[in-house]
UniProtKB/TrEMBL annotation:
Source organism of this protein record: Ottowia thiooxydans
SUPFAM superfamilies referenced in this protein's UniProt entry, alphabetically: Thiamin diphosphate-binding fold (THDP-binding) (SSF52518)
Enzyme class: oxidoreductase
Superkingdom of origin organism: Bacteria
Name listed for the protein in its UniProt record: 2-oxoglutarate ferredoxin oxidoreductase subunit beta
EC number from the UniProt entry: 1.2.7.11, 1.2.7.3
InterPro entries: 2-oxoacid:Fd_oxidoreductase, THDP-binding, TPP_enzyme_TPP-bd
Domain (Thiamine pyrophosphate enzyme TPP-binding): residue spans on this chain: 66-214
Record keywords: Oxidoreductase
Pfam families: TPP_enzyme_C
């Protein structure tokens, strides 16, 4: 079924964005996921964010691992570059692609099994290296594709559809990302498009590793009473720390907000994140206090969502490796082989 393309017919009066595309130009093939799967709502939010940001689809590289979640790049941005890699190995392939061509926008899509179970090491190193990318985990607490086994993010004490209790402690990808140095960390819920779209836009504008953990219920294997990843459970326990307005560098900032309730964070590309604090004592720019607050709320059974941490200006992997400003495929022979005199100079520097 994944080979079924959507009909290319457009209504002539569909609204076009600044680069001339309709929202439909950001869609992909027909989804083959179960009806009601949270992952499809995330795909819709990615489409909306890219369309609203006037991103040219051919400037995007979408990479994923293996799983229902990792299948989704087939269902959005059909005109972008795509690489469905090996289970848990998306981050290293993305890192290599990013180092070779820094001019594309990198979008990594993964699952909780893909990133917290088999791919945990890969996830950790991509975060600590601050690879410039948007990294979305579509987190349903199970291996959906292989029929609902607990994944490493399943909460201790939560129950499978057949009543089996999970006795293992969960891996909290948000806490890990914070600890490992990710410069943008957020959590959202697939049932909250109004929160997801600005978060994805903000992550795209960010100049380093932007991680978004999106709780995305698996309606087939993990949406029952006893699950802590069901639509009902998340709706009851979801607590947003902030609400974001995303303001592109090109637009005049017109919002008027009472002092004391808002914080602006400027990103490397000139975009501004305007954070309306919902929790008065939450500071998303202080890594240590944000981690402490998150842990305290988690102990109370709250699932904090929103932009949890952001470092406005940050050095990504290219900056720390001092790589060429030009993508490798744009370098000519003289750049790649500058000649004997240049080699002699380098060698002299080591003597
Ligand atoms: C190396 C390897 N081991 C195991 C598998 C089997 N496998 C395929 S998908 C998957 C888990 C997917 O879970 P998750 O990443 O949470 O995605 P979801 O389907 O829940 O969206 C597993 C274990 C595989 N494809 N490759
Ligand atoms: S099995 Fe679960 S995760 Fe996979 S498509 Fe169906 S609802 Fe979604
Ligand atoms: Mg999963």
């Amino acid at each position: 079924m994944t080979y079924i393309a959507k009909p290319r017919l457009h209504h002539p009066s569909l609204t076009r964005n600044k680069v001339g595309y309709t929202r439909r130009d950001y869609e992909g093939k027909v989804s083959t996921l179960c009806a009601g799967c949270g992952h499809d709502s995330i795909s819709a939010a990615i489409i909306q964010a890219c369309w609203e940001l006037d991103i040219e689809p051919h400037r995007v590289a979408k990479l994923s691992g293996i799983g229902c979640s990792s299948k989704t790049p087939d269902y959005f941005l059909g005109a972008s570059h795509g690489f469905n890699t090996v289970h848990g190995r998306m981050p290293s392939v993305l890192t290599g692609a990013n180092l070779a061509n820094r001019d594309l926008l990198y979008l990594g899509v993964s699952g909780d099994g893909d990133s917290a179970s088999i791919g945990l090491g890969q996830f950790a190193h991509a975060m600590r290296r601050n690879v410039n990318m948007v990294y979305i985990v579509e987190n349903n607490g199970v291996y959906g594709l292989t029929k609902g086994q607990f994944s490493a993010t399943a909460d201790k004490g939560s129950k499978s559809k057949k009543g089996v209790v999970n006795n293992d402690s969960p891996v909290d990808l948000v806490g890990l990302a914070m600890q490992l140095g990710a410069s943008f960390v957020a959590r959202s819920f697939s049932g909250d498009k109004a929160q997801m779209v600005p978060l994805i836009k903000a992550a795209i504008g960010h100049g380093g590793a932007a991680f978004i953990d999106i709780i995305s219920p698996c309606v087939t294997f993990n949406n029952h009473a006893g699950s802590t990843r069901s639509y009902d459970w998340v709706r009851e326990h979801n607590e947003a720390v902030s609400r974001i307005d995303f303001i592109t560098g090109r637009e005049e900032i017109t919002a008027t907000i009472a002092p004391g309730e808002v914080r602006d964070v400027e990103q490397h590309d000139g975009t501004v994140l305007r954070l309306r604090k919902l929790h008065a004592d939450y500071d998303p720019t202080d890594r240590v206090s944000a981690m402490g607050y998150m842990n305290a709320r988690a102990a109370e059974g709250e699932l904090l969502t929103g932009l949890l941490f952001v470092e406005g200006q940050t050095d990504d992997l290219h900056a720390s490796l001092n790589t060429s400003a030009k993508p490798l495929n744009g370098l000519g022979t003289t750049d790649l082989c500058p000649g004997a005199a240049a080699l002699e100079k380098i060698n002299a520097g080591f003597r």
